[in-house]
Protein: DEAD-box ATP-dependent RNA helicase RhpA
Amino acid sequence: MLTFEELGLKPEILKAILEIGFENPTPIQEKTIPHLLTTQQDLIALAQTGSGKTAAFGLPVINQIDADSKRTQAIILCPTRELAIQIAKDFDAFTKYTKKLDVLPVYGGSSIEAQIKSLNKGAQIVVGTPGRVVDLINRKKLKLEDIQWVVLDEADEMLNMGFKDDLDFILSHTPESRQTLLFSATMSREVLRISNDYMNSPEEISSGKRNQGAEKVQHFYYVVNGRDKYLALKRIADMNPNIYAIIFCRTRRETQEISDALASDGYNADCLHGDLSQAQRDAVMGRYRKRHLQMLVATDVAARGLDVTDITHVINYNIPDELETYVHRSGRTGRAGKEGISIAIVGPKDSGKIRQLEKIIGKPFTKSEVPAGEAVVEKQLFSFIENVKATEVDEKQIQPLMDNILVQFEDLSREELIKKFVSMEFNKFLAYYKNSNDLNTNERGGRDNDRGERGERGGRKSGNYATLFLNIGEKDNLNSGTLLGFMNGLSSIPNGIEFGKIDIQRNFSFLEVEAKHEKTVMDALNGSEFDGRKVSAEQKSGGGERKSDRSDRRRSDSPRSKSGSGSGFKGRFGDNKKPSGSRPRVKASSGGRRK
Ligand SMILES: Nc1ncnc2c1ncn2[C@@H]1O[C@H](COP(=O)(O)OP(=O)(O)OP(=O)(O)O)[C@@H](O)[C@H]1O
Structure:
């Protein structure tokens, strides 16, 4: 293996990359850096995600820039603002000791005037999104006649996003003599099209097999019915208390919905997609990079190429339409030789797609079981204990109170104290998962292990819960939260009754209640008034399939939900604060039906 020094980079660059922590070149860097330092031939470089492609083009380009001239000599085009910022930051780090060299990111959604001001001062390297670059060319502020290097990063995505005309326009303003470089993790039809349209007999250099996934990423899939996807997602998150994940959804709307649901269920989540303002996107990315957010829900476009350190899990909420996209998604973890886990939550009919993905990434998927509630609770419990042990004690603050605290606890044995303490944190979690379903389904769509009384769908089979039909629904401003609150206020419903699933429809709703309390609850509800309407409650006839509103299902099914009795199950990130104290009198079970 050659060293960076042997590749022929200047001392000031070597000093900078050593400081960043690059000891040896990655395979793609070892192959492309000498090529770019010695020839003018166009280049297509293909290498796995996270294998250091930015430095593979960045270092040799920086090495050759004439810093004495202020003219723009290299332009890097990429699909998103986040990526432009990221690449420009990487370049800033590479050029830390290179005097007089300016790198300017230009992208839409932020002040063009500030970018023009910087351009007027001169920037030898511009990193930009196509739309803004076109705008700056049209305003005659960005001049490309001295361009020697054009880098197309994530070029296929730029075409997918409809930037073809912009790319044509931009490249037509660059000299014929330029060297055009295309770096990608996947070889697709678009990549070929770009090489035909914009490149001149390019050399192709690749490291690893075409489209291969990152080396140390393990791939798992879970088969669940569509309506259980969100529950499966939450169980996966609950099973990994220190998860630092990116969750991919197909559309902006789905991204927003899943993120909202997670946040409302008490998870530390937010989203990144194209409907957000630049300021919102920056804020989300900032929080995520600092690990103030534990889960980022994103569209493919928004997260393409993102390099965030130590993401533990990539979760595919569904399989992407373009299967190659999976390579880019899963590559957000396992970067720079590290390990990672990529999970696909799939429907019963998706096994064919999994086999196709295996061919593309050149690795097998392992079929996994969505963990049972008990396993999740155990995991959370031990993680909680670890957190307790790791909690730092502020001796100065606590010491003066200690005598009093010890007096308060003197009646309790050590064991009793621990039990109470753990229960305080865990009662809600335990209740939530107590009667939880087996969410796994087999690839023909049937349950792997239908636990009868625990199965929630298709009507309860067991005698544990009875289902009541109520004549009030969404149009009466009813939701799971208002229903539970309403019942809390009915003195004829005693404390501690457990409720199961709440299914609110437009004109009516269903409420599961412990069978032994069915009559008490029915009697209490009958004749009461909700929002000015007389309530009628009766036993639900039959046990047919119910169609639940997805968002109600989501929101009502969380051990972390904000009004919960527990104080939250935070990993080390946890800023998912919850109000404490106001415990509802009515207990919810089997999926914490309380909002
Ligand atoms: N020689 C090196 N030694 C150690 N780390 C490196 C080296 N080169 C790059 N890295 C680090 O590897 C990570 C991934 O690099 P980069 O973002 O360039 O990957 P990429 O190949 O462009 O990935 P993607 O295809 O997902 O865009 C970065 O955090 C970068 O700092």
Q: What stands out?
A: The CA atoms of residues 239 and 379 lie 6 Å apart.
